[in-house]
Amino acid sequence: MFVNFRRINKCQCVRLMTTCLLLSVAMLCWEQLDERVVSHVKSYSHRYLGNHFAYINKSLTVSREHARAFSDFRYLLDHPDKCVGKDVLLLLLVKTSPENIDRRNAIRSTWGNETYIRNHLGVTVVVLFVLGAPRTEEGEPSWSKRSGVGFQGRLVDEDRLHGDMIQQDFLDSFHNLTLKLILQFRWTHGRCAHAHFLMTADDDVFVHMPNLVSYLRDVKAEGIADFWIGRVHRGAPPIRSKDSKYYVPFEMYPWASYPDYTAGAGYVLSGDVADKIYQATLTLNASLYIDDVFMGICANAVGVSPQEHVYFSGEGKAPYHPCIYDQMMTSHGHVEDIYDLWKAATAPQVKERTSGAMGTLYCKAVKIFLLCKPYSFNTYPCSAAYL
Ligand SMILES: *[C@@H]1O[C@H](CO)[C@@H](O)[C@H](O)[C@H]1NC(C)=O
Ligand SMILES: *[C@@H]1O[C@H](CO)[C@@H](O)[C@H](O)[C@H]1NC(C)=O
Ligand SMILES: *[C@@H]1O[C@H](CO)[C@@H](O)[C@H](O)[C@H]1NC(C)=O
Ligand SMILES: *[C@@H]1O[C@H](CO)[C@@H](O)[C@H](O)[C@H]1NC(C)=O
């Protein structure tokens, strides 16, 4: 059977082609418009029509005795005097797990090197690793059994060498991350309350320490109350699919969206906010194990909201380029490349290449190219190119 093309007139042909085009675009887009997007839209309307989460405080509030159960763990490793007698600009707490010794060593000799920061940047930054207890028996790697030291023995040795680990006696696991968060705020409150800023970061994050220090110095000079900055998730909905790592049952959190919070990969608070959050942890039910969401709930309870900084990354890894290094604060997902990135990002050539009228223009073009590509979700937002 042949279609008689000559009988289809021009107008029909255009209409047919347009329809085909629209259909294929719609089919391509359908995948993007999945459940996540739909529930985002729902949560946005919920958020702006609803009464701004006045209810969260009431229903997640528990008695102080109940709340204490989330923080009352014995310290296995501690350094109570770390901040004593120092004018600490930034207390930087790195969330780590017992087995991640390579990551800790990489941080110690790159962006987390306190001596380098003091000598080259002229400020005091205290970097500490925060962890829970290692799994024993079946979870223990064979090498540690053979050596007869045990995993905890290894950690004690590592801490003796570096003196930078804070550990409490709860099992270090994904679902105990909120316990680790509470540990951080409790330790800060008790041992380093005078630090101007508190940062919490993952152990696979790259922090551009010179950029961050210079930024925080400016913020400090301007006066620093109610400061909380990072990559902000606004109106994010709880994930109700049981297959997800981030699954949260209705009983635990019944509302359609979370309060605004900053991605746990790395965010910064001023000292006053850190103290308010600590106070909030004393009366909230910390069963919700997604630590950055829980932090958002605490902040909501005490009336603090986050600010967005486009050069803090959430899940994403920053593109490798001097024009990016010139402004980056954090980038997520760096393990093996951390030494090279630290060298490249802090090289004096970065400033040379990106300064001056030509450098500025060149970098603008490069950043638009790198950050504004369609479908590149995992990096800084396109708006960062125009900063
Ligand atoms: C930290 O930096 C200092 C001075 O820049 C250097 O001597 C030291 O070796 C570094 N530490 C590590 C663990 O790399
Ligand atoms: C969290 O830590 C506690 C105390 O060690 C432990 O009993 C519990 O099983 C841990 N929870 C998870 C989900 O790992
Ligand atoms: C805290 O929340 C969990 C999960 O929703 C619940 O099972 C528990 O009973 C709550 N604790 C208190 C003290 O209300
Ligand atoms: C919850 O709300 C009550 C009443 O508004 C307030 O007194 C209390 O301080 C709030 N709780 C927290 C943890 O901020």
Structure explained in plain terms:
Helix 9 packs across helix 12 (291-301) and helix 11 packs across helix 12. The chain folds into three domains: 9-49; 65-308, Alpha-Beta Complex (Spore Coat Polysaccharide Biosynthesis Protein SpsA, Chain A), CATH 3.90.550; 322-386, no CATH class. The chain has an eight-stranded mixed beta sheet, sandwiched between helices. Strands 6-12 form a two-stranded antiparallel sheet. Strands 8-9 form a two-stranded antiparallel sheet. It has helices spanning 10-32, 35-49, 54-60, 64-68, 101-108, 114-121, 142-147, 151-162, 177-191, 209-221, 271-281, 291-301, 322-325, 338-346, 348-354, 356-371, and strands spanning 75-77, 88-95, 124-133, 165-171, 197-202, 205-207, 228-230, 232-233, 261-262, 266-270, 307-308, 330-332. It is an alpha/beta fold. The N and C termini lie far apart (61 Å). Residues 170-171, 173, 175-176 line the site of one 2-acetamido-2-deoxy-beta-D-glucopyranose.
Layout of SSEs?
Layout: H1 10-32, H2 35-49, H3 54-60, H4 64-68, E1 75-77, E2 88-95, H5 101-108, H6 114-121, E3 124-133, H7 142-147, H8 151-162, E4 165-171, H9 177-191, E5 197-202, E6 205-207, H10 209-221, E7 228-230, E8 232-233, E9 261-262, E10 266-270, H11 271-281, H12 291-301, E11 307-308, H13 322-325, E12 330-332, H14 338-346, H15 348-354, H16 356-371
This protein binds 2-acetamido-2-deoxy-beta-D-glucopyranose (4 copies).
One 2-acetamido-2-deoxy-beta-D-glucopyranose is lined by residues 108-109, 113, 115-116, 119.
